[in-house]
Amino acid sequence: MRLTDYTDYSLRVLLYLAVRGDGLSTIQDISQAYGISKNHLMKVVQQLAEHGWIETVRGRNGGLRFAERSRALTVGEVVRAMESDFALVACLPDQHGAHRSCVIMPACRLREALDAAGKAFLAELDRYTIGEVAQPHGALSSLLGLGGAVIPIVPVAPTPSA
Q: pLDDT per residue over 130-141, tens digit each?
């Protein structure tokens, strides 16, 4: 299973803003931190705001901030909201209940296995909240250019060859 870039960017925006905390950020800030086009992020940010997961502040000193209630939001909830279709194969129902027929459908057990796998995938994502995956703040802040603590990289000594 592969998530769309749209969902990936949605999760990244939420992580960025969760790590940033109460301060305002701009789409430009997030774009630069991840190396993602501003144009791609604009629609993502709009939908995240419509869900109430982020707050937008208009005006000259405006920007975006993480909605505190979103700390309890699960990764699974975000993925379900952002992905348009979880049918792993055409014979599984899409979000509207539609599916294509297949000649072996009446006796096919593969369909059942793939359906269970998709449900297990989402159940696993439901185990993690945005607040949890936004940890450790210091390391993520540093990597995102937010001025967090710098995590030193300790080189591993090579093992002697035999």
A: 999 998 878 888
Spatial separation of the C-alpha atoms in residues 147 and 15, rounded to whole Å: 15
Residues ≥6 apart with Cβ < 8 Å to 14: 48, 53, 54, 66, 70, 73, 78, 130, 134
CATH topology of domain 5-143: Arc Repressor Mutant, subunit A (1.10.10)
Per-domain boundaries in the chain: 5-143
Residues whose CB is less than 8 angstroms from the CB of residue 6 and which lie 6 or more positions away in sequence, other chains included: 43, 44, 82
Q: Give the model confidence (pLDDT) of 96-109 as tens digits.
A: 666 677 777 777 78
In the numeric block, which tokens belong to residue 156? 């591993």
pTM of the model: 0.79
